[in-house]
């Protein structure tokens, strides 16, 4: 019989070249015959685990039970249990795509009982259909055989139960009879589900867009039909002809977590037609052509042949820095400095074990002056000195007014933590001018070196965007770094932030707190800022709002608190590419001095970007609290698309030229809602680069 052959095949596959056959096949067969009345294998498996490899055997036992539990949950149509198992175990641990002794997979049972929610959950986890079903005829024959054998087994057990006198054996056979009756009904339901199913309808919302100068992307939704069987895969076809003859290529998509596909390797400037069809256990459904029916691979740069703005810039800067280093290395003024690392050998430890050394120069209290503090944190813990103090070193005890230029210079130095010694040598050479600015910056470099030496760490992290100032004349520059490793350090202890905040004895009054007290009060906000400033945007095209405000010594830019390294923005679409045709339309609108599109038009099907911009502008104006009618005076920046790698790009929305930057004393008529802050422009640029 067909099912008996499959059982023999499964048992043969389960055997190892050496040693006895695995009990898994027998256990799985028993599970499939037991129906609702499952037995718990825990006591059997755990009792037989002795000697070497006990943990591995126990693990395999648990995995076998999880596979059995998944089959049972699918057969009982228990969606919650299926989702729980898929979350708890990997597909490999569940043997998700290994057929059982009946030649079935969990996905087969789900789709043939037409349980769409469970089938979708399995498909998103990577489930596949049984490889035994190579045709409609083979599936139909297999189901008929399962039903016939289950019916025959029910008849045999019924006769035995009726003819035998009541006994323990009879009671066991009654249980088997109930199990086989339940399985007989399951197989009949699966057979009926297959016979009544039909091929799927065409996918819906098939949208085609230009992904680059050599690729297009197609996105689509499931078919609308609710009576058809569950769709298990899709086929994307493309051609240069609207008749799809000759075809250029096709791709089958069986990972259905995201219904989209990018076709690569296309020729720029050539139109390509795309269509998509769906598949279920009855076969392929009719194809659905995309909207628009074709797309031409292109990029906005092809409009005027513009090269990427940053092409070769990083390499050129590295080369320039190397040349500067070479010149300074041959300078005789550096000879005395070359021996300096030897005299400070103890301060360049590779660990943090010297953090609590009695000879450390960390400060307990602040006097009037300029200081540097480094905050290292992991989860909700913060690194402190042996006296429960955040590490602080002095920069200059006579410096009571930090100039913004010095602070911004310090933030740039934070991009070169590993080059501090070399920078110190450069500034030392230049000190012959006796410039006060150079003196201050040299002291900053000394303080950085001291902090690095005491901590044994070169990378002090990111500089917080503004220093902390108190009324006593103290100024505190703060660096932040998250420690993500589980490395343990000798003589170092991490202290919970809340404990540090409650246990610290303040030496200042609540009305006039010191800079250190102000740091402890706001440390969680600063850590949140640091974490948010490292977040990245998901791939797509965004609309950004550029708003500046100037002060006496700096220009600041408006950013969202949740993502301070990016301008205020909303997402236009998931495709980051602007095609040549779309850029031509934007250029035409800019040359005609057309207002930005805020009102919907009757037909935007010919220009999807127009509708996408309308929606994005409305959302952005609401976000920054600007009346929509005022947006008619705003402009789209038409000089270029801001590309951040290959996955993120920006169009900029600008206020009227007189309102782009608010001058000191000038009233800003539109105040953004809470959730925004203004960063110094140089700080924003550094954060953007990170």
UniProtKB/TrEMBL annotation:
GO biological process entries: establishment of mitotic spindle orientation; regulation of establishment of bipolar cell polarity
Protein name stated in the entry: ANKF1 protein
Cellular component aspect of the GO annotation: spindle
Region (Disordered): 1-25
Domain Fibronectin type-III: 202-299
Species assigned in the record: Cephalopterus ornatus (Amazonian umbrellabird)
CDD domains documented for this protein: FN3
Gene name of the encoded protein: Ankfn1_0
Gene3D superfamilies, per the entry: Ankyrin repeat-containing domain, Immunoglobulins
Domain of life: Eukaryota
């Amino acid at each position: 019989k067909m099912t008996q052959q499959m059982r023999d095949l499964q048992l043969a596959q389960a055997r190892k070249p050496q040693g006895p056959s695995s009990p898994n096949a027998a256990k799985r067969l028993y599970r499939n015959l037991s129906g609702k009345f499952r037995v718990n294998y825990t006591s059997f498996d755990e009792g037989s685990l002795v000697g070497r490899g006990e943990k591995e055997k126990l693990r395999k036992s648990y995995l076998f039970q999880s596979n059995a539990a998944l089959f049972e949950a699918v057969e009982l149509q228990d969606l919650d249990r299926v989702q729980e198992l898929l979350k708890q175990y990997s597909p490999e641990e569940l043997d998700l795509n290994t057929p059982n002794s009946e030649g079935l997979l969990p996905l087969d049972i789900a789709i043939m009982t037409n349980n769409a929610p469970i089938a979708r959950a399995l498909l998103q986890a990577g489930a596949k259909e049984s490889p035994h079903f190579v045709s409609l005829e083979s599936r139909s024959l297999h189901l008929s055989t399962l039903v016939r054998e289950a019916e025959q087994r029910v008849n045999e057990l019924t006769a035995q139960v009726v003819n035998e006198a009541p006994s323990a054996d009879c009671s066991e056979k009654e249980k088997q009879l109930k199990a086989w009756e339940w399985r007989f009904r399951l197989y009949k339901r699966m057979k009926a589900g297959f016979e009544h199913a039909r091929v799927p309808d065409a996918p819906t919302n098939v949208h085609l867009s230009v992904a680059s100068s050599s690729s297009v992307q197609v996105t689509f939704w499931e078919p609308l039909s609710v009576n058809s069987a569950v769709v298990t895969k899709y086929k994307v076809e493309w051609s240069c002809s609207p008749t799809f003859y000759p075809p250029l290529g096709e791709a089958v998509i069986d990972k259905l977590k995201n219904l989209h596909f990018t076709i690569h390797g296309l020729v720029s400037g050539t139109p390509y037609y795309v269509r998509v069809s769906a598949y279920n256990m009855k076969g392929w459904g009719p194809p659905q052509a995309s909207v628009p029916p074709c797309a031409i691979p292109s990029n906005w740069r092809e409009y005027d042949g513009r090269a990427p703005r940053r092409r070769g810039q990083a390499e050129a800067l590295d080369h320039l820095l190397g040349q500067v280093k070479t010149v300074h290395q041959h300078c005789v003024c550096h000879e005395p400095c070359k021996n300096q690392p030897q005299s400070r050998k103890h301060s360049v430890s590779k660990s943090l074990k010297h953090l609590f050394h009695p000879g450390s120069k960390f400060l307990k209290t602040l006097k009037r002056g300029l200081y540097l503090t480094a905050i290292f944190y992991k989860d909700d813990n913060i690194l402190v000195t042996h006296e429960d103090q955040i590490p602080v070193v002095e920069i200059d005890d006579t410096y009571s007014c930090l100039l913004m230029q010095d602070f911004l210079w310090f933030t740039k130095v934070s991009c070169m933590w590993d080059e501090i010694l070399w920078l110190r040598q450069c500034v030392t050479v230049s000190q012959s001018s006796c410039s006060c600015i150079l003196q201050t910056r040299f002291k900053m470099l000394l303080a950085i070196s001291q902090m690095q030496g005491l901590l044994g760490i070169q990378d002090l992290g990111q500089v917080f965007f503004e220093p902390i100032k108190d009324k006593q004349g103290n100024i505190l520059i703060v660096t932040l770094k998250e420690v993500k490793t589980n490395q343990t350090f000798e003589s170092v202890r991490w202290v919970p932030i809340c404990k540090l905040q409650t246990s610290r004895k303040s030496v200042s009054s609540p009305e006039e707190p010191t800079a250190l007290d102000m740091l402890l009060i706001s440390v969680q906000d600063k850590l949140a800022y640091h974490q948010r400033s490292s977040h990245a945007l998901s791939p797509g095209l965004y609309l950004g709002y550029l708003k500046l405000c100037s002060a006496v010594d700096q220009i600041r830019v408006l950013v969202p608190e949740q993502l301070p390294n990016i301008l205020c923005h909303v997402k236009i679409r998931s495709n980051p590419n602007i095609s040549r045709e779309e850029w031509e339309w934007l250029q035409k609108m800019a040359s005609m001095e057309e207002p930005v599109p805020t009102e919907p038009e009757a037909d935007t099907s010919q220009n999807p970007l127009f509708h996408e911009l309308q929606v994005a502008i409305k959302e952005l104006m609401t976000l920054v609290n600007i009346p929509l009618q005022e947006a008619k005076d705003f402009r789209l920046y038409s000089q270029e698309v801001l590309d951040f790698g290959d996955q993120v790009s920006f169009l900029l929305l600008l206020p009227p030229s007189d309102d782009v930057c608010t001058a000191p004393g000038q009233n800003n008529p539109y105040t953004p809602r809470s959730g925004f802050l203004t960063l110094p422009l140089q700080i924003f640029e550094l954060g953007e680069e990170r």
